[in-house]
Amino acid sequence: MIDLHTHSLLSDGCLLPSELARRYEEKGFKAIAITDHVDISNIERVVKEITFFCKNWPKNRIKVLPGIELTHIPFEHFPRLTKYARKHGIKIIVAHGESPVEPVLKGTNKTALNSDIDILAHPGNLTREEALLAKRKGVLLEITCRRGHKLTNRHVAKVAKSAGARLILNSDCHRPEDIPNLSIFKKLAQNAGLSPQDLAKCLKTSQSFL
Length: 210
Fold this sequence. Notes:
Order of helices and strands: EHEHEHEHEHEHEHH
């Protein structure tokens, strides 16, 4: 199993990166990405700290990928921040999508999809146009475990599948109790209207980042 959307205490999570990695390792995960929230105010610090951590994490343990989640940022900051992240070693760039439970600026989904991101997290009332753009750009659309954000999982799955866009299952973990297992991922997929074959595709997609 792989989870490409997690948070440590480098942003609003409650675990050190080492403890987050160890807890996922104990659950049988092969890899995670630590994708702490950033904007222009803290991206330099977070990128420096998470890339340093990942470079020094033991190679024979669970694989930990350095990531960020661009969160509530002004549209004009996307090019600058994604370029900075790539240049300084970030492997997974998540964009905080238009979740139904947060006041995300309308148009964020489209702006993020037109940027150099890997995953559009909890994209809320995703449109077919956005899903087709995700397909063209190779951006993964997230089915999330996160409370509140997951309210539109079924809609996201339906629109993404109709457009041929790829889906990914992530936890958006912030606390130890958020860490999933295979049963949770299976139930998540089922509740989103995905078939066992769809679930297998999602899990295979996650592995492509390793």
